[in-house]
Specification:
With about 425 residues, this protein is of the alpha+beta class. It contains 15 helices and 15 strands. Bound molecules: heme C (5 copies).
């Protein structure tokens, strides 16, 4: 219980509320400029007499002053979005087809392909930069070593400038210290514009939500924002950023990270009426598990006898499976677990000599792509495309992991 306020306290509270209102009225949140995500360009106007460093849009340049963000972001999938699996699909397609993919994977005008030769050169160069960022290097890049060691801006995928820079101007969330919105005068790159739009889930939508008209069985192929809006997380103000950028850290961890997935689920394994049951509850995932059509999760149950031989086996798949059939995409099944939902995986009518039951949950984050790469490799690919797709296929296989394994010893007589 709170104590009632004394008169002095109430007067002080009233003054601070009024003061707050005046402050709010003084600084109006400008929001993101209209068309922030339409053909974005980050290029610094030549009229700015900034230092070379302030004009440099590459993440290694931002890193000289924003090392904390860079060191976390460079390990995220955003930093690796200009990937072998992506560019390996481009040879043979026109560069305009490829640019339609880059609108999410490397969307700045300065990153798009200007012509077929530009595309071919870039795909060849990407083979040399096969490993992307040097995971061990800290932010001490020699940015004056302009074109030799550092990645071209395009190769840095969903780069700092993609989210933060338009026509040279920096945009960011209100500073944690002041919460101020609007134009902020700071020593570098002509200050920046602070807007709460950076704290909204909508900020992620241009790449993580397809429009309604692209629906398959009522749901677009990417439906993450709508799934979030339909969940209790949106009522509670738990945005994408709260989970994927904790305390503003640029982690963007998702289904490729076992720790992140474990954090989102809770497991309970029990024995009941000659059955074993694993229940999985989605406790901290702001959208379907998984949200995309590309991963597959396999739940397996095995009843074992006294010497560990398998007496009974059952398997379930958690997936939204789609396939391209003749005239378009069709949904084959959708068994994903929704936010807050508990799903039972029941192994019924256990054999009498069963003594224990083993449950495993395996995650195949790139299930769809693995199939795609296999089929591409069975076609005739150019040498460069083949090198990229083989690499992508290998990486995809390395991403599979065991999420959960537990054995329950049966107590009841069967
Ligand atoms: C020479 C140093 C320097 C370089 C280079 C630099 N910045 Fe900054 N930046 C600053 C300073 C100083 C501030 C204001 C204080 C702060 O928030 O750190 C700032 C502020 C920002 C903000 C606003 C932070 C907030 O609180 O919302 C963003 C976003 C930003 N910079 C992005 C970038 C990006 C992207 C690059 C590279 C393309 C870059 N900066 C390059 C020094 C630099
Ligand atoms: C609307 C945004 C968007 C567009 C357009 C888009 N992608 Fe992606 N792509 C994503 C997202 C988000 C992921 C990560 C989630 C996932 O696994 O599906 C991804 C993942 C991928 C991956 C697997 C991860 C990797 O980088 O190796 C490949 C390959 C890929 N996309 C290829 C393409 C190709 C080819 C096109 C164009 C035909 C394309 N994408 C267009 C958003 C997009
Ligand atoms: C996919 C979009 C995206 C990318 C890529 C990205 N950022 Fe951010 N950044 C954000 C968002 C969103 C926030 C605000 C998060 C919040 O408020 O929870 C933010 C916050 C920031 C801040 C303010 C941090 C603070 O503690 O107040 C800085 C500085 C910044 N980013 C710099 C960078 C730099 C440098 C890079 C590249 C190394 C980068 N960002 C890449 C989306 C992005
Ligand atoms: C410019 C487009 C773009 C924007 C904006 C963007 N993303 Fe992404 N995001 C991508 C692409 C493309 C990938 C896939 C990268 C890859 O693997 O090739 C991705 C991957 C991810 C992943 C990893 C998925 C996995 O499979 O593990 C997470 C998590 C994520 N994004 C969250 C966010 C959040 C949260 C925001 C908003 C703050 C955001 N993204 C904004 C394009 C974008
Ligand atoms: C309550 C926390 C939470 C919120 C809110 C949340 N996510 Fe996630 N997200 C997770 C967890 C945990 C995972 C890993 C499990 C999974 O893949 O579903 C994940 C996975 C992902 C993935 C990986 C791909 C996949 O198929 O699952 C992407 C992309 C993603 N989130 C984007 C977003 C976007 C965009 C938003 C906002 C619209 C958002 N997330 C909101 C917790 C959250």
């Amino acid at each position: 219980m709170k104590k009632p306020l004394s008169l002095k306290q109430s007067v002080l509270a009233a003054i601070s509320i009024i003061g707050g209102l005046i402050l709010m009225a003084a600084a109006i949140d400008p929001g993101l400029p209209l068309g922030y995500w339409d053909n974005p360009s980050a290029k610094v106007p030549s009229s700015h007499n900034w230092s070379e460093l302030e004009k440099d849009l590459r993440p290694e340049a931002c890193a000289q002053c924003h090392a904390a963000q860079f060191n976390v972001w460079k390990k995220s999938l955003h930093a690796h979005a200009y990937s072998p699996g992506l560019v390996g699909q481009f040879p043979g397609q026109g560069h305009t087809y490829a640019n339609d993919c880059l609108v999410c994977h490397a969307p700045l005008k300065e990153q798009l392909y200007t012509d077929p030769t530009d595309m071919d050169d870039s795909i060849l160069l990407r083979l040399k930069h096969a490993e992307g960022f040097d995971a061990d290097a800290d932010a001490d890049y020699d940015v004056s070593d302009r074109d030799t060691k550092l990645l071209p801006l395009r190769h840095t995928g969903v780069s700092c400038a993609v989210c933060h820079v338009r026509n040279g101007d920096r945009f960011g969330p209100p500073p944690k210290t002041t919460g101020a919105v609007g134009k902020q005068d700071t020593p570098a790159h002509g200050g920046f514009t602070a807007t709460k739009d950076f704290e909204q889930s909508q900020f992620c939508a241009s790449c993580h939500q397809f429009p309604d008209y692209m629906a398959i069985n009522g749901k677009p192929l990417e439906n993450t924002l709508i799934e979030w809006k339909n969940s209790s997380f949106s009522d509670k103000g738990v945005t994408c950023q709260v989970c994927h950028m904790p305390d503003r850290a640029h982690e963007f961890r998702g289904i490729h990270d076992p720790k992140m997935v474990k954090k989102g689920l809770s497991f309970s394994l029990t024995e009941q009426n000659h059955s074993a049951n694993l229940s999985i509850t989605s406790t901290w995932i702001g959208h379907a598990f998984p949200t995309y059509v590309t991963p597959k999760v396999i739940v397996e149950a095995e009843a074992l006898n006294a010497v560990g031989s398998i007496m009974q086996h059952q398997q379930w798949e958690i997936i939204r499976e789609v396939a391209y059939q003749g005239d378009g995409w069709k949904e084959l099944r959708d068994t994903r677990i929704m936010p807050g939902e508990t799903r039972q995986f029941l192994l019924k009518a256990l054999p009498t000599d069963a003594r224990s039951v083993r449950y495993t949950v395996r995650v195949i984050p790139d299930n769809f792509y693995k199939g795609l790469y296999e089929s591409l490799l069975s076609d005739e690919l150019t040498a460069v495309a083949g090198a990229h797709i083989r690499k992508a296929n290998q990486q995809a296989a390395n991403n599979d992991y065991l999420l959960y394994e537990k054995v329950i010893t049966l107590i009841q007589a069967h």
